[in-house]
Amino acid sequence: MRNLKQVVAAVMLRENRVLICQRTEHQPFALQWEFPGGKVEPGEDWASALVRELHEELGISAVVGQEIATVRHEYAEGLAVELHFFLVAKFTGEIENRIFREVRWQERASLDAESFLEADRGVVRMLCSTTGEPSAL
C-alpha cells in the first residue's frame, strides 16, 4: 500500500456501551460512524497522537490503554490507512462534541457494523460479539 497513513482510534468503554462519533455531511465518508481519533503527526508516538486527537475532538485528557487491534485498509478512493485501536477506559474532563455531527454512548450489542467506516467494521463486530474488555485481535 503506497502512501500509508498512520491513524489511531480510541475504543472507549463505559459498562456495556462504547463511545461512537458520526462524521458530518461535509467530511469525507459523510455521516458514517467511527471511533474518535485521527492521524499521527510526524515525530509522535501512537499514544501521544491519540491523547492529542481526543483532546482536540472531545475536550478530554485520556489515559491510553492497551492496543487491541491493528487494521490495514485501502479505500476505493485510494486512501490507505494503518489504524491502531487502543482501549481508553479512563479520562478526565467532560466529553464535548467539537467536530462531529453526533457523539453518543451506544450499547455494544446494537452497534451496526455497516454504518461504520470500512476500516472500523472488524473492531465493531468484535465489540458486538464479546462482553467485558476486548482482548487484542
Account of the 3D structure:
- The protein is α+β, with helices and mostly antiparallel strands and about 140 residues long.
- The chain has one domain: Nucleoside Triphosphate Pyrophosphohydrolase.
- Helix content is about 15%, strand content about 35%.
- It has two helices and nine strands, in the order ββββαβββββα.
- Strands 1, 2, 3, 4, 6, 7 and 9 form a seven-stranded mixed sheet that branches. It has a two-stranded antiparallel sheet with strand order 5-8.
- The protein is globular and about 40 Å long.
- The mean pLDDT is about 90.
Specify the CATH homologous superfamily.
Nucleoside Triphosphate Pyrophosphohydrolase
Global structural class: alpha+beta
> How many DSSP H or I helices?
2
Termini separation comes to 21 Å
In N-to-C order, the SSE pattern is EEEEHEEEEEH
Give the total of domains: 1
CATH class annotation: Alpha Beta
Beta-strand proportion: 35-45%
Query: What's the number of extended β-strand segments?
Result: 9
CATH topology: Nucleoside Triphosphate Pyrophosphohydrolase
The pLDDT mean sits at 92
CA radius of gyration: 14 Å
CATH architecture identity: Alpha-Beta Complex
Helix content: 10-25%
Shape: globular
Poorly predicted parts: none
